[in-house]
Design a protein that fits this description.
heterodimer; A: alpha+beta; 2 domains; 4-stranded antiparallel β-sheet; 5 helices; 4 strands; B: mainly alpha; Formate dehydrogenase/DMSO reductase fold; 0% strand
């Protein structure tokens, strides 16, 4: 088997439907290390590429519940045991007052989990990526790209470009390794 | 017109940031706002260096102008969250044209709102004692106090606004990185864009995150202003002690927030010639929302008066008699004029679509909401249960310097923002015009961008 001289192939398509069809065909043909690039979220593209559904909402809910429980426990412990303080004879375990900060912290944890979910799931921050080496690659115009990685078992330096061309790619660029 | 309207839009909006030279008007705004910001810094220096005696607050009115300013600023912040969160969830397409400036406005307003309680503290250098952390003093925050709740709510709001604005900017930062010609722009926007590549995975996570954040926006809005209102309503002072306060403060906040969006949208539209993107239709919709919240605020005023009368207590009723005819009566009637009477003009379609009239009404709403906070915070304690302690307080030069100085900081930051960042969301705009969106052919439905009613 010959060593691939490039990191992968970047194929340009004229519009969203063309990219979507090519992505479906590529996945059906057995390509697994691949990525689609579109100037806007294309409905169906993640599914076509075999991107799994995000677990962020469930994780955010979990983080919110944990934060609420944790902060409620912290408030009870500090107000009843660590730093008991008698204010006008009110009970030390005045739990309704502890709900406000618990809810605030639950919301904050959900917000931060959503943000971290975007970074981790989207592979960010990653300032360098091989596709940036292709001068034609840009997010600044209406450009639709399908990227097939050379690490894919189905990738073949000769057959893959021909396959892409047959599936409607208007330009095919080698991505320097 | 270019063959592809989405392409032309992207080019136009990014060139506004990357290529256009700042106009003399922009420089003038920046310099004037910078002078005000410097005055703000001086006033802060005086208060932190010598003490809060520079401000007009005095016993019995221990809560005065910094608190008025906090509640006012936090109200302005709310429209940003409302527009980007609730209107995104309800799929109101017209919000795209104003969401970015509303979010930026929200962020800068909340920074100022968070600053004023620290100004108000007698010993601001102990502000960090509000944080729960193990310390050698064995001290913990007083969790039963609304002031502690406040700290957490404002901190939550600040972090939320920052995250929301940044996430919605990410794809735009990548566009700017890829279209930039100058080296500092490529590096600067490139670092901020974190390597965004428009990949399907990234878009999937982006949509998910935006949806989650929007769903969280509504409870966070209520948490912020609602909790601030508890500072007042948990006490037993006549004029403060009303259960209606949390919703009353939230609708008031939205009223002032939407009017601030109107002000900024009109200025931006005129200065940047964005008539096609921010249309009279958008201003019309914002006007309707202003009217809605003005009516809600008017209802709250009536409810408060009814409560004062129905409580059957002399001190409660006295607060109203004093508001109507006492030393602060001009503020009260000014508030009624700006928040109840003038907004009735918004019933007229012609008024809602007239830029000068909307500008004046929005300015009036800002004034009215500041006066409302002034009336609530100050007229309640100045006639408390102890008649021998009754007194009046008035703002000093430092108080005015703080108020107008904070406006300067706000305008300064906004001016920098509209210079360095796209003031309309490029990716959302092009998604709305793009050929991949919806069954209609490209160019056949400009109404998504331009609002369903053309100017």
């Amino acid at each position: 088997m010959d060593e691939p001289s490039c990191a992968g192939l970047l194929a340009r398509f004229d519009d969203g439907p063309a990219l979507l069809a090519a992505a479906r065909a590529a996945h059906a043909a057995g390509y697994r290390v691949l990525e689609g690039h579109a100037p806007e979220p294309l409905p169906g593209l993640p599914a076509a590429l075999g991107v799994p559904a995000s677990r962020t909402p469930r994780l955010a809910l979990l983080a919110a519940l944990l934060a609420a429980a944790g902060f409620f426990a912290l408030q009870v412990w500090s107000a009843v045991w660590a730093y008991p303080f008698n204010i006008g004879g009110r009970p030390l375990f005045s739990w309704p007052a502890f709900l406000v900060v618990s809810i605030d912290m639950a919301l904050l944890s959900a917000v931060l989990t959503a943000f971290v979910g975007l970074l981790v799931g989207g592979g960010l921050p990653r300032l360098y990526h091989p596709v940036f080496n292709v001068p034609q690659f840009t997010t600044g115009t209406e450009a639709y790209f399908l990227y097939l990685d050379a690490a894919d078992v189905r990738f073949d330096p000769q057959a893959t470009p021909a396959w892409l061309e047959a599936h409607g790619a208007s330009e095919i660029h080698e991505v320097p390794a | 017109m270019a063959a592809n309207p989405a392409q032309a839009l992207t080019a136009r909006l990014s060139a506004d940031v990357l290529e256009r030279r700042p106009s003399p008007l922009w420089w003038l705004t920046l310099v004037l706002a910078g002078v005000l910001a410097a005055i703000f810094a001086l006033a802060l220096g005086a208060i932190f260096g010598w003490g809060p005696g520079w401000m007009g607050m005095n016993i019995p009115v221990a809560w005065a102008f910094p608190i008025v300013n906090t509640i006012w600023w936090i109200g302005i912040a709310h429209a940003g969250t409302f527009i980007s969160g609730v209107l995104l969830l309800t799929r109101q397409h017209w919000r795209i044209s104003v969401s970015r400036i509303a979010e930026a406005m929200g962020l800068f307003a909340i920074v100022l709102a968070g600053l004023f309680p620290i100004v108000h503290l007698g010993r601001p250098w102990f502000a960090y004692w509000l944080l729960p952390y193990p310390n050698t003093m064995g001290l913990w925050p007083q969790w039963r106090s609304p002031l502690v709740w406040d700290f957490f709510s404002i901190a939550l709001y600040l972090i939320f606004t920052l995250v929301f604005l940044y996430v919605s900017l990410l794809p735009d930062l990548a566009i700017l990185r890829d279209r930039a010609r100058r080296r500092w722009q490529r590096y600067g926007y490139g670092l901020l864009a974190l390597g965004w590549r428009n990949s399907a995975r990234q878009w999937q996570r982006y949509q998910q995150t935006m949806l989650l954040l929007s769903a969280l926006a509504a409870p966070i809005v209520v948490a912020a202003t609602g909790v601030i209102s508890l500072d007042l309503s948990v006490s037993i002072v006549p004029g403060y002690h009303f259960t209606i306060f949390p919703p009353y403060f939230v609708v008031g906040a939205l009223y002032s927030g939407f009017s601030m969006v109107v002000l900024i949208a009109i200025v931006l539209r005129t200065a940047r010639r964005l008539d096609a993107l921010i249309t009279r239709g958008h201003i019309d919709r914002l006007g309707r929302l202003m009217l809605l919240f003005s009516l809600a605020v008017s209802y709250a005023y009536l409810c408060e008066i009814f409560n004062g009368w129905y409580a059957g207590e002399a001190y409660y009723w006295r607060v109203y008699a004093d508001r109507w005819a006492g030393p602060y009566a001009p503020m009260y009637w000014g508030m009624i004029t700006c928040n109840v009477l003038l907004p009735q003009l918004l019933w007229l379609r012609g008024v809602r679509r007239s830029l000068p009239l909307m500008f004046l009404l929005a300015l009036g709403a800002q004034l009215g909401m500041w006066l409302e906070r002034y009336v609530i915070v100050i007229t309640s304690t100045h006639r408390d249960y102890l008649p021998s302690a009754w007194d009046t307080v008035w703002p000093t030069a430092t108080d005015w310097a703080l108020l107008f100085g904070s406006l300067g900081v706000f305008i300064f930051l906004l001016a920098l923002f509209v210079r360095l960042m796209p003031s309309l969301s490029i990716h959302e705009m092009r998604e709305a015009t793009g050929p991949a969106n919806g069954p209609e052919p490209a160019g056949a439905h400009p109404q998504h961008t331009a609002g369903s009613t053309r100017a």
